[in-house]
Amino acid sequence: MTTETIVPFRLRGGCDTAYYAREPEILVEGPAGTGKTRTILELLNNLAIDYPGLRAAIVRKTQVSLSSTCLATFNDEVLRLDHNISSQGVSFFGGSADRPAAYEYPNGSRIVVAGMDNPDKLLSSQYHIAYVNEAIELTVEDWETLTTRVRPGAAESAIVSKTTGKPFANWRVIADCNPSHDKHWLNLRCMDGKTRRIKTRLQDNPAY
Fold first, then answer.
1. H/E run at residue 102
2. Which residues contact 72 (CB under 8 A, 6 or more apart)?
3. Is-contact 143 131, C-beta < 8 A?
4. pTM of the full predicted structure?
5. 87 — alpha (psi -120 to 50), left (phi > 0) or beta?
6. CA distance 133 to 79
7. What is the pLDDT of residues 31-69, one digit of tens each?
8. 82 with 75: CB under 8 angstroms?
9. CA-to-CA distance for 201 and 29, rounded, in angstroms?
10. Which residues sit opposite 93 in a β-bridge?
């Protein structure tokens, strides 16, 4: 099991558990203000820095809904973007006919930004880790399709940590939301043992 770089703020409670979880499917629950989204975004950024060539994805049901919510947190609180350039030299590529929009790192890592409403470019690649923001919006078919793209592959297995020198070993899909009812497919996956459930509380917010 690889060791991954800790985020530069204090992790506690469910946020700490979520940051270090390694299961293939992870659901982070909690009300607004628990810091679950910030924690997961810090994880993606730290992995992208520590593992040159990492392929990650930030996904929501529709790509347009990411801009004012999840990506605002990523830009303002994690990357602290200034004219699309952060202190780590990260730039944002707006997408093209054959390549999805993505945050691009100087070491070759990429964090793709996409919606399941237009999945063709997203699903044309394999990823080491994918983050699903507000996963309650997805269907179980969306989820299962995404999980087929987050798995070991010949090229991806070669990336190694700058910190430990060990190869990346924990492919996973990590999501945040609050399932709306007991029979929601996310609740059923958790109860069936397919997805690990991690609960967060307001006092877990790492920014406090």
1. strand 102-104
2. none
3. no
4. 0.89
5. alpha
6. 18
7. 888 899 999 999 999 999 999 999 999 999 988 888 778
8. no
9. 9
10. 102
